[in-house]
Amino acid sequence: MLLGLIIAARTLRDNPESIEKIYSSGKLRELTGMEEPAYKLIKEYLDTGSIGLYEELKSKYSENLIRLVRISGLGKKRMFKIYDTFNIKSLGDLKDKLVDNNRIANVLAEGGSEKNKAV
């Protein structure tokens, strides 16, 4: 799905007409690379002004998570696991948890899970 969204985004970016004009003329689906998932997301945004999936993800994960995911050496999978397990919302939270609680090392280890243990 992600690759399809990237292709659709590039198609729209490179098209000289506005997205609104293409959509209102009914030609959005006809564009090269415009698959159904991308079409539905664009249609939802143009019809409602928002995208439900985006709003859901935005409410579940803080914008600081992007910064946390970029920490060298942790990787996306591990950072999401730490984020969810220890309710870490910022770099400050991560530093506090590392100082106060060395059990994050168990989550970092392959197969380690602290989800059901007290923090």
TrEMBL record:
Gene3D superfamilies listed in its UniProt record: 5' to 3' exonuclease, C-terminal subdomain, DNA polymerase beta, N-terminal domain-like
InterPro entries membership: DNA_pol_lamdba_lyase_dom_sf
Name the UniProt record assigns to this protein: DNA polymerase beta-like N-terminal domain-containing protein
